[in-house]
């Protein structure tokens, strides 16, 4: 078996319950990463979801979707239409966030073809963005390390600087910046040629690559205006932020704009099975219908009835237990506690995020924001110290510029309580103290 890290020991996890997982030796860990990057929104071992999964498996576990339909897929599509922003009522099911990104790009390209804009094929995205590890997702992604070994295989797609106020690429300070990071999109569109640019793709809140960096309130309204001006599809990658993670069903709602396509996965199936979705605006679907064109794509497990039954159960559980409201409340408390930690630990440079998608950046010098060198492996050290004390956090590297920099991303289940948050911050406090002594003496 290939492990992501072939040179580390991997202890078996044998059980999960609510916000905790248990290893083969009986040790308990607070799952503050939500499985991996926000994959566990409702906690481990949720009985209503397990019951729905078993019930559907007893009926039929697989349907060949190139010939038939199935009730769970149809119901889940209807439920997604109810919670998605207005005008996004059609869903294309896939198996992962990476597949969702690939399919969003393909749908965007085909949309322009159906409308006679045959020259439009480029997708502009941002440096430090991340949409998945398939070659297609890496092409539009902007994380230097993840792309570096595969550059010869990737089509060269344009990128703009990120919305990263802590390390503004333009050397400006919000709000006296005229939102240069958003307006730069129009400059690149003109340079690339509007007749060639098909769309713009971004995470509302960047997770894995920068640790919950969140743009100002003006950012996405400006992006929406530019996309409309140049007939570009606006794609919101909500693989991590979707399904309530930030205190709203979809994070883009915080900015009051409606994208043309939303990609989501991870939390959609609660971590029980692989499931992703591409949610498409009506005007795009209408162009397919007008031209009597089908999406050129398809995956063997697309619309799998067991996965879709799980998805229905997850959305029902979230609504029934008011977990989005609880997510917003717990997230605010977690961010408050992290800010308190920042005051006591000089290697925490910045605390950011929304809801239960929060992170903090680790720096060598807070006054200059100087990152630690890569060989210091700061985020990994902190992760290991937390693991020793019974908490799972998600480390990130290349935070500052794609090469250097460290951050921690925290995305616990929505069921996390204040007591859980206090437990987590206590473990972080102890672990940060150890790592600071190792690094700074």
Describe this structure in words.
The protein is of the alpha/beta class and 441 residues long. The protein folds into 2 domains: 13-45 and 322-440, Aspartate Aminotransferase, domain 1 (Alpha-Beta Complex); 48-320, 3-Layer(aba) Sandwich (Aspartate Aminotransferase, domain 2). The chain is 37% helix and 16% strand. It has 13 helices and 15 strands. It has helices at residues 34-38, 47-59, 71-83, 97-114, 135-140, 144-148, 180-192, 219-229, 282-290, 305-320, 323-344, 378-388, 418-440, and strands spanning 13-17, 20-23, 28-31, 88-94, 122-126, 159-160, 197-202, 233-237, 261-264, 276-281, 348-354, 357-362, 391-392, 394-397, 406-410. The strands form 3 sheets. Strands 4-10-9-8-7-5-6 form a 7-stranded mixed beta sheet, sandwiched between helices. A 4-stranded mixed beta sheet has the order 1-2-3-13. The protein has a 4-stranded antiparallel beta sheet with strand order 11-12-15-14. The protein starts with 12 loop residues before the first strand and ends with a helix.
Keywords:
Aspartate Aminotransferase, domain 1, alpha/beta, 16% strand, 4-stranded mixed β-sheet, 2 domains, 441 residues, Aspartate Aminotransferase, domain 2
Count of helical segments? 13
For the biggest β-sheet, the strand order reads 4-10-9-8-7-5-6
Number of strands: 15
Oligomer: single chain
**CA gyration radius, whole angstroms:** 21 Å
Based on the coordinates given, report the CATH architecture of the largest domain: 3-Layer(aba) Sandwich
CATH superfamily of the largest domain: Type I PLP-dependent aspartate aminotransferase-like (Major domain)
